[in-house]
Write a structure and sequence with these properties.
246 residues; alpha+beta; de novo design (two linked rop proteins); five-stranded mixed beta barrel; three-stranded antiparallel sheet; 8 helices; 39% helix; binds zinc ion
Length: 246
């Protein structure tokens, strides 16, 4: 074991291992995704049991090992208790964590990715905008941060700046002229085009600050759903649970 380090982050997942221990996956600002073993965390009265729950945001003390860390404690700044008390919010929060556990690389820190997770959990807690809108904002932005930014500011086929439809085959938006020739073009209202551009161009702290009309949401839902499924072909457990709720 090397020396003790203090890392800031959010717990993405917490899994039982052996009889009394937990394997904890933490998204940290300094080192990206890391795995830590919390020995005895499942024993009654363990000081680690509350600290090692998913969504917890804080500073974690860890001993660095060869291929994993050993959990030594933590100061939690946010437990996101309002999210944990609401089964639908838990599903959405877990879904965001699952995506990041899947996409993030061990050892590479990224403050933006941690920040978007934090603000998504905050948005689930505040309940000002609908959960399914928070989901679509998160998905579109996280793909952009992961290097798969949707082409939305000029036609993905010809480069013309006036865009009017989504085409999955071109990974983005296309202009009115190209729309006529692209087989899978899905026409969009101007407000939907603007919403997509807003999400892609806004700083992370402005992302969860707007609401949209139902018909605009329906288009955004279709576009981001199609785009996300094209880039991430994985079944997420939390979405399966979510679909059984309604
Ligand atoms: Zn075009």
């Amino acid at each position: 074991m090397k020396e003790k380090v203090e890392l800031n982050g959010i717990i993405l997942g917490s899994y039982p291992v052996r009889d009394y221990d937990k394997r904890v996956v933490i998204l940290t600002k300094e080192r990206g995704k890391i795995t830590a073993f919390a020995n005895g965390a499942r024993k009654m009265n363990s000081s680690f049991s509350g600290i090692t729950e998913p969504f917890n945001y804080g500073t974690f003390s860890l001993y660095e090992g060869y291929d994993a860390y050993r959990f030594a404690g933590g100061d939690i700044n946010e437990y996101f208790q309002e999210v944990k008390n609401d089964i639908e919010a838990i599903c959405y929060g877990s879904y965001f964590c699952e995506i990041l556990e899947y996409l993030c690389v061990e050892g590479i820190g990224d403050a933006d990715v941690l920040n978007i997770l934090y603000l998504s959990l905050k948005a689930l807690e505040k309940k000002i905008i609908p959960n399914n809108l928070i989901r679509r904002i998160f998905e579109l932005k996280i793909l952009a941060l992961d290097g798969e930014m949707m082409a939305a500011f000029s036609c993905a086929k010809c480069g013309e700046t006036n865009v009017s439809a989504f085409a999955a085959s071109y990974n983005g938006l296309v202009c009115p002229e190209c729309e006529k020739y692209v087989a899978d073009a899905y026409p969009l209202q101007e407000s939907t085009v603007y919403t997509i551009q807003y999400i892609l161009s806004s700083p992370i702290n402005k992302l969860f600050s707007f609401n949209i009309k139902n018909d605009v949401f329906d288009e955004l839902d279709h576009v981001v759903g199609t785009y996300f499924a094209k880039h991430i072909s994985k079944n997420f457990k939390s979405l399966e649970i979510l679909s059984t709720l309604s």
